[in-house]
Design goal:
InterPro entries: MBL_superfamily_lactonases, RibonucZ/Hydroxyglut_hydro. It comes from Myxococcus llanfairpwllgwyngyllgogerychwyrndrobwllllantysiliogogogochensis. Keywords: Hydrolase, Metal-binding, Zinc. This protein is α+β, with helices and mostly antiparallel strands. The protein has a single domain, classed as Ribonuclease Z/Hydroxyacylglutathione hydrolase-like (Metallo-beta-lactamase, Chain A, 4-Layer Sandwich), CATH 3.60.15.10. The chain contains 12 helices and 13 strands. The strands form 2 sheets. Strands 2, 3, 4, 5, 6, 7, 8 and 13 form an 8-stranded mixed β-sheet that branches. A 5-stranded antiparallel β-sheet has the order 1-9-10-11-12, covered by helices on one side. Helix 2 runs parallel beside helix 11. The chain is globular and about 55 Å long. The structure holds zinc ion. Zinc ion binds next to loops.
């Protein structure tokens, strides 16, 4: 496996994560998240970030708000998004990271989505129930980037991902000539030996990429000025979130919540969500398709909430930008998001200098 010495651990959080009792761990994580955030923003903003919409697809309504939303619709619609992030690392180099560059054409081979296609037919599930906004390739081209400009790929977790088209393996040639996958060690070890209750969400063989393309992360990782990976386990063992500082705010991206209101459920206008949160005494509502460790996922969402803070444009809401964003659709009445924050875009994305691109 590759090592990247230019990253640093994000301070305060690792110690809090190591507390074994879940209630005490949450208390300690709250303090640590605020301390880490303060240190993080002191270094200044990221160089650039762009948000790109990939595909809108159906997702079981019962999962989106842990069963809280009251609607007869079996599916909600979600829009997958990718962030292109450029940050200056500890060596002073500007690096390009793609966060959640889903290769959705390969991803439909995951057993869960395969079953959806079987049930509704390829035409319905692909044409009627899905909308393609652009591919990773087309978005990079419109930002003026080539595949050789990309240093790193990372995903909040590896459900539905097939990495072979991007990084090579199994006789497939790599689209990105020099990019490396940043992944939590816990996630990488897990995908190599899945439990039967996990298998439905994974593309068979999707993680069979060359070992030299993989950089293993151990917990919270400070990538460079204004960019960090937060360890946010629960949904999967090695789940992680992207945190970015711009000149006016911090935002966090993951799939732990499907909308910003997942972090402020008392402000949700979706029928059932506010009452559910009041009844349960929850301050966040989980996107709950896998319940591997719901206590950890809840605590991870509190970390995300405190680290992101409030939106600069919609101050009552948390500056959380879901990687799978709940999207209004005729097929899911009553399940439109209460609010959608403007997608994060900041600074100017630039190509990598030719000397490094060839390296
Ligand atoms: Zn997932």
């Amino acid at each position: 496996m590759s090592q990247s010495p230019a990253f640093r651990p994000l301070p305060f959080l690792a110690e809090a994560h190591s507390e074994p009792l879940p209630g005490l761990r949450l208390q300690r994580l709250r303090r640590a998240a605020l301390e880490a955030r303060e240190r993080f923003v002191q270094e200044g903003p990221v160089a650039a970030v762009a948000t790109c919409e990939l595909v809108t697809f159906p997702y079981p309504a019962q999962f989106a708000f842990s069963g809280a939303a009251l609607s007869p619709a079996p599916y909600v619609m979600m829009t997958n998004r990718m962030q292109v992030v450029q940050f200056v690392d500890a060596k002073g180099e500007r690096r390009t990271l793609l966060f959640n560059p889903s290769d959705y054409e390969r991803g439909v081979a995951a057993p869960f989505y395969h079953a959806l296609r079987e049930r509704y037919g390829g035409f319905v599930s692909d044409k009627l129930m899905s909308t393609r906004h652009g591919t990773v390739q087309s978005h990079l081209a419109s930002l003026g980037l080539t595949p050789a400009d990309v240093d790193y790929l990372a995903f909040d977790h590896l459900h539905i991902q097939d990495l072979r088209g991007w990084l090579g393996g199994d006789g497939v040639s790599a689209y990105f000539p020099r990019a490396k996958l940043l992944v939590q060690r816990a996630e990488w070890e897990m995908v190599k030996d899945l439990h039967p209750m996990q298998t439905v969400w994974f593309v068979p063989g999707g993680a069979d990429i060359p070992a030299e393309r993989v950089v293993l992360l151990d917990g919270d990782t400070w990538l460079g000025v204004g960019a960090a990976i937060l360890s946010t386990p629960g949904h999967t063992r090695g789940n992680m979130s992207l945190a970015v500082a711009t000149s006016r705010e911090v935002f966090v991206v993951s799939e732990n919540g499907v909308a910003t209101e997942s972090y402020t459920p008392l402000l949700s206008a979706i029928p059932g969500v506010r009452r559910f949160a009041e009844h349960m005494g929850w301050e966040v509502v989980l996107n709950g398709n896998t319940r591997e460790d719901s206590l950890s996922q809840y605590s991870s969402m509190v970390v995300e909430k405190l680290f992101a803070g409030h939106s600069a444009v919609e101050g009552a809401f948390i500056n959380f930008h879901p990687s799978s964003l709940l999207t209004s659709h005729l097929l899911s009445p009553g399940l439109a998001p209460t609010i959608v924050l403007p997608a994060p875009n900041f600074g100017d994305v630039r190509p990598t200098p030719a000397s490094r691109r060839a390296a």
